[in-house]
Amino acid sequence: MSLLEFFTNHTYRMVLAGTVTIGFVAGALGSFAYLRKQSLISDVIAHAALPGTLLAFLAAVLLAGTGGRNMLGLIAGAVVVGTIAVLFANGVARTSKISIDTAMAVSLTIFFGAGMLLLRIIANGEFPGKGGIQDYLFGNASVITIADLITSLTVGAVALALMLLFWKEFALRTFDPDHSSVLGFSARAIDTLMFTTIVIATVIGVKAVGLVLMVAFVVTPPAAARQWTRTLPGMVTLSAVFGALGSGVGAYLSIVLGNVPTGPLIVLTLFALFLVSLLASPRRSIVTAVLTRRRARAALKRELTGKGSAA
To answer: What is the pLDDT of residue 3?
Structure first.
């Protein structure tokens, strides 16, 4: 398939635009989760978004009596429940002796279990528009519509705008939480706002990629970007670029190869970017570390040899 054919086909354009938007937003906002050493939080969000999405679907069906597959409504439900799951995990870690990773694992299983229960109830019930509701687990990028794309762009833009508006607070809370509290910033308020933006970045991929794979969109680009830069603005920007690039290339390859699911191929493309970064970045790569150690050993050997000759 030629690039011209790819860009002139409406369905392909929707797949490309939708996945690039998801990758860009998730990559940018995922940087804060990565730097706070809470990368697993994206997994909590993704699994908690399932019951949020299904509750929004049921609410729309019961209140309106029609199909509940409105993208904005589903995202709203996922954002609310995903944020609750994140706050629950951090609250447990803050008020008990349970570590944050254990609290996140508990939160993940509780909310995902509730989601699977709701999924079975919907599958066995008579609900209009329930067909394909299970796609939200694994995603189906080929069904992205213009309305879905506009919704993802709008919601993603809001999340990025919040990040830029509260950039100083987010950065200070990430790198020096004690100093942030001394300056009078509310830790709970900043955390809630920060995690809400990360939730948004995660759940906008619910339809195209699926909840199960969205963790890779939030974690992998920042991990790759961290190998190339040492500043927060540089990392956030490069992570967003990596997320968009990996998503676009993965979407294109899935269409070119044919009958290959888009989400998993994007995840593999993001992993390839991470692997290249891990091996080839100029300052933090494995290759650089090996060469540095080799040069240090050679210098030490020359120094010891020189001292031995002098003696």
So the answer is: 67
Structure token digits, residue 74: 């589903």
Rg of the Cα atoms in the chain: 22
Q: Give the CA angle between residues 53, 54, 56 to the nearest 5°.
A: 65
Nearest to 87 by CA among 49, 56, 41: 41
CB 214 within 8 A of CB 272: no
Could you give the domains of the chain?
A: 3-216 (1.10.3470.10)
pLDDT, tens digit (0-9, with 9 covering 90-100), for 80-118 = 898 899 889 888 988 888 888 889 889 989 998 998 898
Q: Report the alpha-carbon distance of residue 244 to residue 171 in Å, rounded.
A: 23
Q: Under a CB-based contact definition with an 8 Å cutoff, are residues 44 and 218 in contact? A: no
What sign does the dihedral 267-100-34-78 (CA atoms) show? positive
End-to-end CA distance of the chain: 72
H helix or E strand, kind and range, residue 245: helix 232-257
* Whether the predicted model's global pTM rises above the 0.85 cut: no
Q: What is the pLDDT of residues 179-229, one digit of tens each?
A: 777 777 787 888 888 888 988 888 887 777 777 678 888 889 999 999 999
Structure tokens of 229?
């830069």
